[in-house]
Structure formats: C-alpha cells, structure tokens
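Reminder to self: keep the SMILES exactly as supplied, no canonicalising. Ligand is zinc ion.
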Amino acid sequence: MKSQVNKSTCRICGSKFTRAGIGRHIKSCLDKHFQAMPKVKARQLYYLHIYASHNADYFLHILIKEKARLRDLDNFLRDIWVECCGHMSIFAYSGMYREISMQKKIHEIFKPGVILEYTYDFGEPTELTVKYVSKYAGRIKGNQKIMIVARNAQPIILCDECKRNPAEIICTQCQWEGEGWLCARCAEEHECGEEMYLPVVNSPRAGVCGYTGN
Ligand SMILES: [Zn+2]
Ligand SMILES: [Zn+2]
Ligand SMILES: [Zn+2]
Ligand SMILES: [Zn+2]
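Structure tokens returned for the bound complex:
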C-alpha cells in the first residue's frame, strides 16, 4: 500500500502544512490567538495532539475545555474516527493497562508529559495516542466542548492492483493479506464480491469491522 499525504490546514489561520510542520505551526498560532499565560480566572483550554498509534498520518489537533470529561472526548473520537457498531472503548495511561474512568475531567488528567492510549474495540482494535501539549486561556466559539484546530487531509492511497489510481474501496477479504485497497475500476473486476467491500474514508479505522464513516 503506497500512500501520498496532502497538506493539512490550520483552522485558526487557514495556512497549509505537512504533518511534520503542523505541530510547530499550531503551537505558535495558538500562542498568537489565545493567551498562553492565563489569568487565574480565565477559562482553560487544553491543547491535545491525537494520532493513530500505528499511522501518525491520521491526526487531530484539538482544544478541549478543562471541565469536559473523558466521555466527551470518547464521543468526539467515535463521531469523527471510529464508531462502527457500538464497541467498547477505554482510555489508559501510556504503558499502563489500567482503565481511567470516563467521568474524569480533562483538568484532572492532563499535565505536562501525560500521554494516554485510547482503544476502541478489543476484537479489531483501533488504537489512538492522546498527547497533552499545553493549555491556553480563551473561548471556543458556539459553546462547543471541543474545537478542531487541524485534522489530517485524507491520505491518497494507491490501488494495490493497478498501482496507479487512488483507492476508493477496501476489500476486507484481501486486507488480511495486507492488500485489497482498490480503485473504482479494479473493484469492478475484483473477484471477492461487493459484500466484502468498505469505502476508503479519512479515518484510521477505514477497512476495519463495518466502518463506513457514517
Ligand atoms: Zn494557524
Ligand atoms: Zn464494528
Ligand atoms: Zn486499480
Ligand atoms: Zn478481495
């Protein structure tokens, strides 16, 4: 599976960046637009960098309110990246396998150096890494608990058969052998049958279980 990564956009200022450059940019952009050294009473927003543990091309940079709970972050991750059929999910401190209660608030968990691991579905898991970067004072528009600052542009993955067109379909049968990403043309002639197909979507769970992105 060959892939090519498009530039992603910082939603605060609209500039475009590669994966390598975006972290540094967002930090300086947040420093400029939010207050890095908050006054005591200001609302705190936690800046978290979230990425697929096995493929950091899938990433999210978010601001989340200090009083939001891990349950809110779980719901957000389900909506944007992982929900297929209501599997279980947990957060744990990196390297420790003890589950953290979903009732915990963001400010009770995150401080410098804290990294969490998120697992959705224990049968065919999707594993994410949640890294605390820093915190800011400020507001999120529209009274949301979470603001997306940047999300990866969809990686372009070439068809495993013709190696030329971008894949649009994943054959879950062939995926067991590390193949099965197919362009629309090759999918038509492919032998496994449409009931094995899932769409290519912008999520680390593309091609897993029944994930369709809807
Ligand atoms: Zn920016
Ligand atoms: Zn499922
Ligand atoms: Zn093809
Ligand atoms: Zn197949």
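Points to follow up:
Residues 10, 12-13, 15, 25, 29 surround zinc ion (ligand 1) (CB under 6 Å).
Residues 158-199 form one domain.
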